[in-house]
Amino acid sequence: MSIDRRSIFFDLTRANVLARGCVQPDAGRCVQCGICSHNCPLGLDVRAYAWRGIPITDSQCLTCGQCVARCPRGVLEFVPLRPES
Amino acid sequence: MATHYVIVGSGVAGVTAAEVLRSRAPDAQVTMISAEAAGFYSRPGLAYYLSGRVPERQLLLRSPANLRDLGVRWVQMRVNEIDVTNRRIKLADGQKIPYDRLLLATGSRAMPSDLPGSELEGVCYLDTLDDARNLVQRARRAKAAVVVGGGITALELAEGLHARGVHVHYLLRSDRYWANLLDTEESRLVEDRLRADGISIHYQTRIRQALGSRGKLEAIETEAGERIACQILAVAIGTRPQIDLARNAGIKVDRGILTDTTMVTSIPDILAAGDVAQAYNPILGQATLDTLWPTARNHGYAAAHTMLGDPQPYQRHVAMNVTLLAGIPTTIIGAVGSGSDADLVAIARGDSETWRHAHANWVVVERHDVNRIRLMLGERSISGAVVMGDQSLSHTIQRLIRTQADISPIRATLMQESHAVPKLLADFAASLEHLHGNHAPH
């Protein structure tokens, strides 16, 4: 059962990111090319959030980072949902 | 009677204005007139469609049906004339549309090539969705392409056609790429990457004519007499704001339509926004052209507020673009270059005239393989920067330039220890943010 400690740690870390982090667009850098939406495994329209400059708070967002990594203009980044007190 | 707002053009400036007008003046009538059948699409995204990174449908942002759902009356037609006296516009089909306030967001178009043979089938541009479709179609059959011009679009053409399996010859009139913006080493980084990808670069090479038979392009001939066989000649020598409509109506124009900071032209009820607008820049004391998406969006926003009778002067941000130059992520901010570029006869796309107002500043360069930071240092602040490769500091540098942060505490060290630039900047920005609160806006 040696894998358990590691996988629990991983799951907790992941849960932490899921619970506390989200993807935040910088509308000023975005040119609406749609690479983010095209690569979202859940088909979320990330680009529509970027147009409005609001964080992707859709509960389906996995924070998998596909959109963050593939955006050619550095529009998207992970930010904490609430600043840690 | 409800106020009638008419917008000519369906690009980012026009659509931004339409959205603001629709939400702020629910009772008003908003009409958008455009010759583009597809409605609003991402023009910068055309390059990614050409290179195969996104499918065509992904570029479409607001179809005519979407715009109608928004409450915008959509008219797909070319505008022939503005009747300033009677405040109405005349369309190509003879229809007349009256307006109370008119926004001209007609954009810019690629400068056409004036070479002998430019009318041949196979001479292409990357300007509209139709142009991109045409290139994708032609790339299926073409073996070789010649690309001429400069700026971002020329590279997008070279790389996009290469990605579609066409052998690309990139012809430069000068001895390096984008000479009035990049420094020698930055140009070389881009050129080395293009060559490594398999693109042939021909320096100091001008085309004498395009050759073909039965109306189809077959080759180009250089001024030195060399012939290069090609089925595509892709031209990106600059863009030209579409000002004819305004000029014929007696509106003051220069290279673009001249506006004040609230986007009003020389005729009070007529405004201009986006690539076509040459807005007064209070910092430089002159009217400048930008062909940047964020500028067009800010113009559209400012214009809509002026039309609503609630002027909010266009806040000129430091001009910034993030792009891939031969696959190298590159951020250009503020004043970084000067002079002219033999490969461009006018402003390129994704370009800003304000970038070429660099004074004799001190230049600091931090270099690590393809990662490179060039800072233009003024007496007290950073006036411009080019960040290539690793982009982790680009947001930080953008903030320092935009806020004209006083960098005197680290200036001397920056100049002496260029290898320590990233750490110095990161630490300095962090200390500023700590001083002014943890959540400084972008």
TrEMBL record, chain B:
InterPro entries in the record: FAD-bd_OxRdtase, FAD/NAD-bd_sf, FAD/NAD-binding_dom
Query: Which Pfam families would you find in this protein's record?
Result: Pyr_redox_2
Q: Where does the FAD/NAD(P)-binding domain start and stop, copy by copy?
A: 4-298
Which Gene Ontology MF annotations are present? Answer: oxidoreductase activity
UniProt KW Electron transport keyword: no
Cofactor(s) listed: FAD
Query: What's in the keyword line of the UniProt record?
Result: FAD, Flavoprotein
Q: Does the keyword Flavoprotein apply?
A: yes
Q: Per its record, how is this protein called by name?
A: FAD/NAD(P)-binding domain-containing protein
